[in-house]
Amino acid sequence: MENLKDGDFTAQAESILQRYPREQRFALAMMQDFQKEYDYLPREAIRRIAGYLEVPPGKIYSLATFYKAISMEKKGKYIIKVCDGTACHIRSSTWIIEEIGKLLGIKPGGTSADGRFSLETVKCLGTCALAPVMVINDEYFGSLTVGKVKKILQRYGGRADEE
Ligand code: FES
Prior knowledge:
Arc Repressor Mutant, subunit A, 4 strands, about 45% helix
């Protein structure tokens, strides 16, 4: 099981499942609770939900892949969201995304091999006047350039300092 201590996980899983009646309409809420607890939906959680609801695990798995809000991949310590909305796109957000990908060796939707960074693209961060913009966890960075991105990632311990 993915870095989860079995005893702890069993107790946690039980406490989540017991919040809900054994009805399929609560499957999404259960998945969200697991994700809140672990920052992603562990595969073992899918098995537990399926067992609790007495449905095949494949059914829960399909639901999990259907909902964009559910992630089955463990996210990095730092989640980088680069805006690729219209205002940011016309100000070269594509280059920013490419540069981050090059520096960290990840593509949008991926997590670096050291588990430090996840890269995502979003449609608007609500700060279009500062385009192009990205946010790392809760910290916003605007008027980005390729050079600025390198410096910012250095602060977070990215491999940019090896370039
Ligand atoms: S389009 Fe990028 S912040 Fe709005």
